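Changelog-adjacent note: as of this version, every example in the card shows the full chain rather than a window. The one below runs 80 residues end to end.
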Amino acid sequence: MDIGRCGACGNIGQVSDPELLDLYAGFDLADDDIQKFLPRLRSSHNDEKSPVLDWTQIGEKIRQRITQDMLEMTAGPELQ
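Full-length structure tokens:
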């Protein structure tokens, strides 16, 4: 769970985004990758004007992470 703004009540506290986490699970993304490189909530709790990530933006972040993983797996020893 993370500190964020609840999508149902709007309060700030410990929240999770099960739809987002299910999406990541569908791509078989490692927990480490999620923790280090991907948002775990679609919205921030910094202020009322914080942007909410849409599915297109999240999809782009997933694509970038998968592409980076593939490059790292196929890179020769000179690139690692």
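Structural remarks: The first strand starts at residue 2 and ends at 5.
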